[in-house]
Specification:
mainly alpha
């Protein structure tokens, strides 16, 4: 903050001194009081002529805009007036004054720009350059990733036939394994069905044999009962019971 105050103090002092120097060398802007005092009437007449639209057109294109006799005299007066050494010296002084202050203002504006605008511009440019560099780095990273992915894709594509063959072989092995398992399960089911069928047949045969035995026993009992009723003697009954027991031993 202190440095800025010192800078502004020197800046204002230098500008004031150089402005005073310009005024001292070239006087005030516009026509000087001395010149107007010595050429008041002629200068007033010249200003009136120079503001005339017809005269202005004549000055731009004399051949296309001729003047009448009165205006021609006025134009001749204006030409003679502007050719005077005093007028030319006054216009040169005014020209040098304008040049002095234009250069002075441009110089001090340039100093202000260098002092204050240049750091801001540098900061802006650095920020913009940083953004561009960041975008560039991001694009390079994305390009590198894309190149890597493309290389991986090409590598995977080159191994695709081998992977396809391995996949087909794996499918064939799995198919054969599943087929073998199905055949094994079918064989086991058939064997189990045969065993169950044999067991069922044996059970049915046993049930049929038991039914036959029961029927024979019932028939023997009925026969024994019938004989007992027809031959009620005890000896014959004992003999029939013994025959029944023998018969039961035979059928069992």
């Amino acid at each position: 903050m202190k440095n800025q105050r010192i800078f502004f103090a020197f800046f204002c002092i230098a500008y004031a001194l150089l402005s005073a120097t310009g005024i001292f060398l070239f006087g005030r802007p516009g026509y000087s009081k001395e010149y107007l005092a010595n050429n008041h009437e002629d200068h007033k007449r010249y200003l009136a002529i120079s503001k005339n639209p017809l005269y202005q057109k004549y000055c731009e294109r004399p051949l296309l805009n001729p003047l009448d006799q009165h205006l021609q005299k006025e134009a001749d007066f204006a030409a003679a007036y502007t050719a005077r050494p005093a007028f030319r010296a006054e216009r040169m002084r005014m020209f040098l004054y304008a040049i002095w202050f234009k250069v002075l203002n441009a110089l001090f504006l340039f100093i202000l720009f260098v002092r204050f605008g240049l750091p801001i511009a540098r900061t802006f440019l650095d920020s913009h350059i940083h953004q561009i560099q960041t975008k560039k780095d991001t694009l390079e990273d994305e390009l590198a990733r894309a190149s890597s992915q493309a290389a991986e894709s090409r590598e995977a594509f080159s191994h695709l036939p081998n992977q396809e063959a391995a996949l087909e072989q794996s499918f064939d092995d799995l198919y054969k394994k599943k087929l073998a398992d199905i055949e094994k399960q079918s064989q086991h089911a058939l064997e189990q069905l045969a065993i169950d069928t044999e067991k069922r047949i044996a059970a049915e045969e046993q049930a049929a044999a038991a039914a036959v035995r029961r029927e024979l026993v019932d028939n023997a009992l009925h026969e024994l009962e019938r004989k007992y009723r027809k031959e009620p003697s005890q000896e014959h009954l004992i003999k029939s019971v013994e025959q029944f027991c023998q018969y039961m031993e035979i059928i069992s």
